[in-house]
């Protein structure tokens, strides 16, 4: 079963209103998300560039885009049971170009995304692995402050310098840009549940490794 995504503005606005990571000083982003440790107001500047997180060869014969949420248990299971084999047998061998795009069901998924992206492209997928592996632990309390501290610990464990991590967690402009980027992608690719995949332009649902590899092998003519 996949986690369903509602994109209606009213539904998204209910996700969070006025919650902080550790302090009560927050910044409301578009769609109602709260940015952690944010300054009182986002700066009136050009929106930050959102970098696509990509693994594999640029000219690989197949492109796979994963849409996933860091708070989605089915996504965590995919990254535990399917993704390692997919990476070993298809991404690392030059058969698949893999793009990971975040989906935000709630503020906690947005916060996790900000921590993962704080490490840059070189560390992103490693931090993503840590976030999914510890999903039950860092989300279990349901308390925003505790969850924020847990995510911060993951970032520090991954080797992100403390000052850099705090700056990322306070970046209200980035939070707002990420939400807008997510909504644009989800609309363009008709994403309504996670995990979902776009394989060479065609949307497919979550599947086990055997089915995933069979689909890829068929496309590769193997």
Secondary structure layout plus pairing:
Elements lengths: L2 E2 L4 H5 L13 E2 L5 E2 L17 E3 L6 E7 L4 H9 L1 H9 L4 E7 L4 H12 L1 H14 L1 H5 L4 H14 L4 H8 L2 H17 L4 E2 L1 E4 L2 E4 L3 H12 L2
Parallel strand pairs: 5-6
Antiparallel strand pairs: 1-7, 2-3, 4-6, 5-8, 8-9
Helix pairs in contact: 4-5, 4-7, 4-8
Keywords: Signal
Pfam families: Thioredoxin_4 (PF13462)
Protein name: Disulfide bond formation protein D
Characterise the protein shown here:
It comes from Pseudoruegeria aquimaris. May be required for disulfide bond formation in some proteins. InterPro entries: Thioredoxin-like_fold (IPR012336), Thioredoxin-like_sf (IPR036249), Thioredoxin_domain (IPR013766). The strands form 3 sheets. A 5-stranded mixed sheet has the order 4-6-5-8-9, with helices on both faces. Strands 1-7 form a two-stranded antiparallel sheet. The relative contact order is 0.20. It is 47% helix and 15% strand. It has one domain: Glutaredoxin (3-Layer(aba) Sandwich), CATH 3.40.30.10. It contains 10 helices and 9 strands. Helix 4 packs across helix 5 and helix 4 runs antiparallel to helix 8. About 16% of the residues have low confidence. The radius of gyration is 17 Å and the shape is globular. The longest helix has 17 residues. The chain has 222 residues and is α+β, with helices and mostly antiparallel strands.
């Amino acid at each position: 079963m996949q986690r369903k995504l509602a994109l209606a503005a009213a539904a998204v606005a209910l996700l969070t209103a006025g919650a902080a990571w550790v302090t009560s000083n927050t910044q409301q982003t578009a769609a109602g998300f709260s940015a952690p440790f944010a300054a009182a107001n986002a700066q009136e500047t050009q929106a930050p560039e959102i970098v696509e997180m990509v693994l594999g060869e640029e000219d690989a014969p197949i492109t796979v885009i994963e849409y996933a949420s860091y708070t989605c248990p089915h996504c965590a299971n995919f990254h535990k049971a399917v993704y390692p084999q997919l990476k070993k047998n298809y991404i690392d061998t030059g058969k698949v170009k893999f793009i990971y795009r975040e989906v935000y069901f709630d503020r906690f998924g947005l916060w996790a995304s900000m921590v993962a992206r704080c490490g840059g492209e070189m560390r992103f997928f490693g931090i993503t692995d840590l976030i999914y592996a510890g999903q039950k632990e860092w989300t279990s309390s349901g308390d925003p402050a505790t969850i924020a501290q847990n995510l911060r610990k993951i970032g520090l464990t991954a080797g992100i310098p403390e000052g850099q991590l705090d700056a990322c967690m306070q970046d209200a402009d980035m939070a707002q840009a990420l939400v807008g980027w997510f909504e644009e992608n989800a609309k363009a690719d008709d994403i309504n549940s996670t995990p979902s995949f776009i394989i060479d332009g065609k949307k497919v649902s979550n599947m086990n490794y055997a089915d995933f590899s069979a689909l890829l092998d068929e496309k590769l003519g193997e």
